[in-house]
Amino acid sequence: MTRTLSIAAISTALIIVSACSNVVEGEAKSDGSPGLPKGDPASLLLPREDFPDGSGTYEVLKQPGQDGPTVSPVECNIFVNHDTVTFDQAAAQYEDGAIRVDVVVGKGIADSFASLQEKAGRCASVTLDLDGVGGTGSVKVEKVSATTVDTTATVFTGNLGVDGEQTVPITIKTLTAQPRGAAVTVKVLHAMEPWTSDDDKLALTLLNKQVAKVQNAP
Predict the structure, then answer these.
(1) pTM of the model
(2) CATH assignment of the domain containing 211
(3) Torsions phi, psi of 209, nearest 5?
């Protein structure tokens, strides 16, 4: 019997985060700029109204999910799953049909922009495995414009298959910014349908709104 791979299964399997620093919460840095924002990271997240209208679901998670597939090479895991970090973070998760969005705020930085780009350069060939759901893909760095702060964009493109019977195309675009010593990550996953310019616009809009909320926080 043919197994059907649903967007819910794909979404559970695939999503990233990147987000350690010695910036002190609520204190100005040595250059006079604000330090880390105060409070729980969940209080810094965008509310439901900042996400697309419609019937999509919205949920705030104290820790982004870590139940995705095994990734090889291991260092490419950051482009598929949520990496474990040593600082507080929270995620706003939105899902509607073939699209899932994670907006993550972490009170620290685990990887510099240079580190993310170097890792992406070593992830031109990636394999995935999750309970019989196998996949292959690649990661690349993209140029990004119209952001309010320096931002790195990475894109995972690939396919998932169930027992060799079904192949589902997947694209995951991640925008990462680092305002005030915090990490802001917007990840858009689009499965089963082609990536469109609307997906790019959604990722960019949410990033700029989330960065602004972090910058304006106490």
Answers:
(1) 0.85
(2) 3.40.1000.70
(3) -70, -40
